[in-house]
Amino acid sequence: GLPVALPALPLELSVLYNSLLFTVGASDSAIKGEAEGIRQGLLRVLEACGACGQDLGMEELWEKVLQEVTMEELQAPLHRLGALQAAWWLAASQLGSVAGLFQLLSTAEDTGRAHCTEGQNKLLSMIKAWQVPPEEPSLPLVQSAKDLKEILCTAAAFLQGLQELEAGNFPTALSLLQEAAGGFCSKNILAQIYTCLGCCAQRMGKPQTALQHLKRALQVDFQCLPALSHVAAVYQELGETDAELQALTLLYEALGKSPPAAASSSPYFLMRTELLVHTPVLTSLLRQRHPSEVKYLLAQRCLQDGRVADAVEHYLDFLSLLQEGLQQQVPLDGSSALPRIPEVFLEAASALEQAGRHQDAITVCEEVISRTSDLIPRVLRVEERLEQPESSSPEAELAGGLLSQKKESLCCLAWRAAGYLHQGWAWARLGESKEAVTQFSRDHLEDAVFRCVCLPVAENLQPEVEVLQKIRYLSLLGRGVQFLELGRNKKALLDFQYSLQISPGDPAAASYLVQALWKLNRKQEAAAQWQKLSQSSPGEDGQQQGQGRPLPLYLVSCLEQAVFPDSESLARSIQDYLGAAAQDTSS
Description:
- It holds the Pfam family TPR_16.
- This is FANCG protein.
- One of its GO terms (cellular component) is Fanconi anaemia nuclear complex.
- By secondary structure, this protein is mainly alpha-helical.
- It is 69% helix and 0% strand.
- The longest helix has 36 residues, at 394-429.
């Protein structure tokens, strides 16, 4: 509130510079918003020179001050304040404003040095060309302008590298991030930069280079656990499952330990790179996984790789975490690696089933069935609507809400149906064919699912209906196999025919159909079907199996169990029959 005194302005601006740095350092959090103190300081400078700029924005205000204030003793304080302004604008990702400011701060000689050749970054060239004003012993600074310039260079390179990475310009991103890695920053920021370099290299299709950068990040700062998470992802891409599981195990163990007290890596720097770089893409790349997510990934990857015993152990550990209130521990923003909880239960049941723990699998499935049954409506219409309301109308919002409800109902229906399916296979493995038939024949498989797979459905519901179609097919096939075990061959034949209607040309269903016809002593029909199956090329079978979207993991084991097991024996019998028939015809 004191009147402006021109001789005191250099001291006043230096005090403002120190004060802003102390404020930033004391908060120790990312810089946000405008620096109101800088604005007030510039207005006082203009006031001392007999000018005003109350109505100007910050960019226009800086332009007016630097063009109209020519006093030599004010140049150094204004340049230091300009560097602080650049820090605020970098934190807001206003890179154009930063470039414009350094254009104003630069002399003609600086501008000549800032001329960048092809491949150089214009903003970095301008910051590097800026001449740091000399310090005056009578005006001590809490952080030198020279150090601040280095931090601005590092932050500018890091921010632009992240922007290019997000835009998919990977070579440019790699160059800028490498520039940032050679800059002025703390160990934890350096580890973050190397992590981003690893992600960039991975997206460029260079997994080995990505591993080098990620390992470098961990060497610099082993507490940079997102780097370890990315290491596991790269090993998965390379198909090195042992190394991937080892990385996930290390990550899980590290997340379970209390991190050491974080001592400031740069205690004498109030303005630091980490306060200037806080973009959504960086937050995404450095997202810290919850231990339960890593435990699930271990279980999932073991199950996918056929390591059944390990998968069972990890799934049971994960399910025990559910008792500790997992919903409060895992982010609900869609970034989590966890699927819906019923799917985890079904995957666990699949692992237990493959491990021979059939009763435990039945118990786990019963939990899914009991929890989802009350969530399925009695009538579920999934057919296409011929007329679609306009996207902006209230009717469209209502239709969107109804569609979301239908998708959720279809998911619940699929989970319950999959629970019965797994129970059917588990009872079959226990030798209880009658109980298996009961599970495969649950009324929802004959009613709601049948309607879903037989009617034309809305496109937005197609993924859920495809899963139901596959469950319907596997249930019919499983029940048909059990009917064969029970000697009820006519019923088995009907189920195999129905399963072929859902999945035409499927080799497993076609093989079982041939076997059922053979057991019914309809050998001529069986031989004709077998010849038709034999003439279909392996490519056609593979194409049939590969149609649609990838199967949920919890259905993979059911599909493997549905493979026809006795094709060679059946083929020999039919070939003998055809040979004998040919001899009879010739004689």
